[in-house]
């Protein structure tokens, strides 16, 4: 009993936060977030860069691959990405608590669970062409998109391993190996994709194959680092029966994590689809696609700050230091707020020429300039919620985040978008205002939840989660 109390001991002392202490936390957060931006952008480009080359083959190849990519993001990649986020809670808190071997065990369990999920997703992708035809898509485009989706199936499994390894390393603040492996994989993918598409004449199949090979390369590089690097020596674990004991804990956090990510991701895709029902759909879809691309690319920056928040908060809660977790939260918020304000001002300043980065159609460029002020608000709201969502993952209250996203986007955002876009005839601008309304409700809700969080209680729950499980406790690692 005394030992259990010692394990669950939480430092409740009120610590006076000095300027030096806060400065050190700012440095630590920046050390995680800055290279993480490169990691997330590089991994994003692995699936996007082949689109540029496919555009040179013809309109059919590009449109079919784009539709298949959108469908695969919604039904597969977003699901795996969200579920893997459960490791941010489990691995992050275990590392903070000094239960280092559990990181390896949790990661093995996550890979098994994600592989299981990949099976029904693969079956769904086999019938992509029939699904698209059922949705009213052009048969020629649907057939080509179906072929592309089938060739994407082999990318699911390395993607599942990759996302698990990323969370495993992120929990230990080991970002540099992820940065190097992601950049190397991206740099090698470009020539591989070019050879497959143009030299071997594989077309869409070659583009999909290059994505899979790039993911496998990324996975192999990270696995070699984990196996042979001394920095991972204390967190490496052999595959054992304990791995299967983690599956329940993983799904307990993975399901709400996936719901949290997918609800937000799907709302953006739904808005793009709805834009095709507006008068002059070519113009509306083009403008909203530009807005979506802009926010998607920028989102990797606040997401990386959110990853830093998740890592630092989970580590400190696992270590039983709630005051330090609050300091970490404050440091991330300051950096994130400064970044989104700077980004919004920059995009607003170039609003009249921003459209030229995507098209030379004067009508589209003018429309983009008109919608940019709303886009800037969207960037600010997205940046805020990305960091607070990271705090939710680090703290382990993804289930609350899932309810927030459901209410924000599907009870507020989408209905407001439909009202403004179709009833009040604000068209594409109205649809995007709806998304901003959803993001605003999401940000305010997460801010209130975070503000009223009892961090001492969160630290106790984190320690109980790590020490009271079925896995053996590593007494030798407890300070």
Descriptive account of the structure:
It comes from Nicotiana attenuata. With 479 residues, the protein is mainly alpha-helical. It has one domain (12-477). The protein is 82% helix and 0% strand. Helix 12 (281-318) runs antiparallel to helix 13 (322-349). Residues 1-6 and 475-479 have low confidence and may be disordered.
Name a few traits of the molecule:
479 residues; mainly alpha; antiporter activity; transmembrane helix; transmembrane; globular; Protein DETOXIFICATION; 17 helices
Produce the secondary structure layout.
Layout: H1 2-7, H2 19-54, H3 59-84, H4 86-96, H5 101-126, H6 128-134, H7 139-170, H8 176-199, H9 203-228, H10 242-245, H11 247-275, H12 281-318, H13 322-349, H14 362-395, H15 398-423, H16 427-451, H17 455-467
Helix pairs in contact: 2-3, 2-8, 2-9, 2-12, 2-13, 3-5, 3-7, 3-11, 4-5, 4-7, 4-11, 4-12, 5-7, 6-7, 7-9, 8-9, 11-12, 11-15, 11-16, 12-13, 12-14, 12-16, 12-17, 13-14, 13-17, 14-16, 15-16
